[in-house]
């Protein structure tokens, strides 16, 4: 398919369609019509014939034959750390706290060119793997490193993805009982001021927004109680969402009980960090009471199965969270703890890892896994009325997956093929009706150039960290 800038109308037909709507509607052979940035219609069979021919210049309609493909909503990533692209493959046999101690001194040396290269690498891997809405939780801001938030947002905009930047922060260094080294943290006032400035400069509250900002102090073991309290107040005053890590490991649970006299969920609740405008990453070590609190307050969860396994954190109770009504999406997490950098692999790993838990084969099905990666993620980011399912009036964030190659040839169920099979090639990915990937290739950046840039910056970071 030739690259193009997006006609007014686009018709995709003759493909299987998984809408991921409330009824789980699917069409073995169906169509979707896109008009501008919105979905105009979806249904069974071929689309109504308008003018003949594959492309009609008169009205700007383009018709795509999706035979052998599955059309789904675009994938929604709910937790990531782009900068970690530069430290992939390090500390491969550590649990979380030791892993952080090993890598914080390296991460604290990042600068603008490094962050830009890492963001391009992270975004490219997600985009070519079916992600249409990306998210980055960035919380390392070395002094003198420049406008890192603007750098990350610029990279996402250039890639053409919908994007949420969770402006993170840390103010609890080693000398104050926290985990990060003192030179890797900001002061309380600086963190709050910079977060507010990022919101003012970049947050778009309008319908169909491409860029949004969340307030995101890093974790209970790297931020002060005051930063959590005042961060929540800032977010609600500005009308943006709140994000942090929560209940990731046993060590975090022990840290909270020793320092605050309560577990992570109760501690975060005491600082204003439960609510329908909040989502937390991981949530592995949760009691029944914790799950009830999340369900009662509609607090969301970013489930990161590959990272949880890589760091030996444990198996999150996703079936129990879903049964209780907790919004759950999927997250890549940083590529220093999930080196693939893709969200598509998380569909499969969420299903497989959760079947190792007490619910076994009934833990998750293939359609539940797809829902986690699409509609569930949209819920967690507060955008389920706009993205996450294929329904008329929603934004045209769509992915056309090729399933007629050797890798999927004998799997009759297209959703099972997508979730359980090998990674499916992306023939077309749309964000607001505009193509960002065609025939597996990025349209707005060059993969070889990205690879060269990330290699160069990773080596530069390693040299600086070794010297210091």
In words, what does this structure look like?
With 468 residues, this protein is α/β, with parallel strands linked by helices. It has helices spanning 96-107, 112-128, 148-159, 188-202, 225-238, 250-260, 264-270, 288-297, 305-310, 318-324, 344-354, 366-380, 414-420, 447-467, and strands spanning 9-18, 26-35, 38-44, 55-56, 61-65, 69-73, 75-76, 131-138, 162-169, 211-217, 241-246, 278-282, 300-303, 328-330, 398-402, 426-431, 434-438, 441-442. Strands 1, 2, 3, 4, 5, 6, 15, 16, 17 and 18 form a 10-stranded mixed beta sheet that branches. It has an 8-stranded parallel beta sheet with strand order 7-8-9-10-11-12-13-14. β16 (426-431) and β17 (434-438) form a beta hairpin.
Strands, helices and their partners?
Elements: E1 9-18, E2 26-35, E3 38-44, E4 55-56, E5 61-65, E6 69-73, E7 75-76, H1 96-107, H2 112-128, E8 131-138, H3 148-159, E9 162-169, H4 188-202, E10 211-217, H5 225-238, E11 241-246, H6 250-260, H7 264-270, E12 278-282, H8 288-297, E13 300-303, H9 305-310, H10 318-324, E14 328-330, H11 344-354, H12 366-380, E15 398-402, H13 414-420, E16 426-431, E17 434-438, E18 441-442, H14 447-467
Helix pairs in contact: 2-3, 2-14, 4-5, 11-12, 12-13
Spans with pLDDT under 50 lasting ≥5 residues?
A: 1-6, 51-58
Q: Please tell me how large the radius of gyration is.
A: 22 Å
Secondary structure tally: strands = 18
Q: Structural class, from secondary structure content?
A: alpha/beta
Total helical elements: 14
| Rounded average pLDDT | 95
Q: Approximately how much beta-strand content do the residues carry?
A: 15-25%
Please report the distance between the alpha carbons of the first and last residues: 49 Å
- Overall geometric form: globular
Which percent bin holds the helix content? 25-40%
For the largest beta-sheet, the strand count, sense and barrel status come to: 10 strands, mixed
């Amino acid at each position: 398919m030739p690259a193009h800038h997006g006609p007014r109308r686009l018709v995709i037909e003759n493909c299987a369609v998984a809408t991921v709507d409330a009824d789980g509607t699917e069409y073995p052979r169906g169509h979707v019509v896109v008009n501008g940035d919105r979905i105009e219609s979806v249904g069974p069979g071929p689309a109504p014939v308008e003018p003949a021919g594959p492309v009609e210049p008169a009205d700007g309609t383009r018709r795509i034959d999706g035979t052998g493909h599955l059309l789904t909503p675009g994938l929604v990533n709910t937790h990531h750390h782009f900068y970690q692209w530069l430290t992939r493959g390090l500390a491969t046999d550590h649990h979380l706290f030791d892993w952080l101690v090993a890598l914080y001194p390296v991460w604290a040396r990042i600068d603008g060119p490094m962050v830009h290269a890492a963001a391009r690498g992270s975004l490219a891997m997600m985009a070519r793997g079916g992600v249409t809405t990306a998210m980055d939780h960035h919380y390392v801001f070395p002094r003198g490193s420049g406008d890192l938030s603007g750098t990350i947002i610029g990279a996402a905009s250039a890639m053409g993805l919908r994007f949420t930047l969770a402006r993170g922060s840390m103010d609890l260094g080693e000398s104050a009982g926290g985990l990060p080294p003192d030179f890797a943290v900001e002061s309380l006032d600086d963190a709050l001021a910079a977060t507010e400035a990022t919101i003012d400069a970049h947050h778009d509250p309008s319908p169909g927004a491409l860029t949004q900002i969340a307030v995101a102090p890093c974790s209970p073991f790297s931020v002060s109680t005051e930063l959590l309290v005042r961060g929540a107040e800032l977010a609600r005053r500005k009308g943006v969402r709140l994000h942090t890590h929560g209940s990731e490991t046993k060590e975090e649970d022990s840290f909270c009980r020793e320092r605050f006299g309560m577990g992570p969920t109760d501690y975060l609740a005491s600082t204003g960090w439960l609510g329908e405008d909040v989502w937390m990453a991981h949530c592995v070590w949760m009691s029944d009471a914790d799950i009830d609190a999340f369900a009662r307050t509609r607090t969301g969860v970013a489930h990161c199965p590959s990272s949880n396994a890589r760091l030996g954190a444990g198996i999150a109770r996703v079936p129990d969270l879903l049964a209780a009504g907790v919004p759950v999406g999927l997250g890549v997490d940083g590529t220093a703890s999930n080196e693939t950098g893709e969200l598509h692999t998380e569909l499969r790993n969420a299903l497989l890892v959760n079947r190792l838990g007490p619910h076994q084969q009934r833990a998750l099905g293939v359609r539940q896994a797809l829902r986690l990666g699409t509609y569930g993620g949209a819920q967690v980011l507060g955008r389920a009325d706009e993205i996450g399912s294929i329904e008329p009036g929603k934004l045209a964030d769509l992915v056309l997956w090729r399933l007629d190659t050797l890798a999927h040839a004998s799997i009759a169920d297209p959703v099972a093929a997508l979730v359980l099979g090998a990674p499916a090639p992306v023939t077309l990915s749309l964000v607001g009706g505009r193509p960002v990937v065609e025939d597996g290739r990025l349209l707005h950046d060059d993969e070889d150039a990205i690879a060269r840039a990330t290699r160069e910056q990773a080596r530069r970071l390693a040299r600086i960290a070794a010297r210091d």
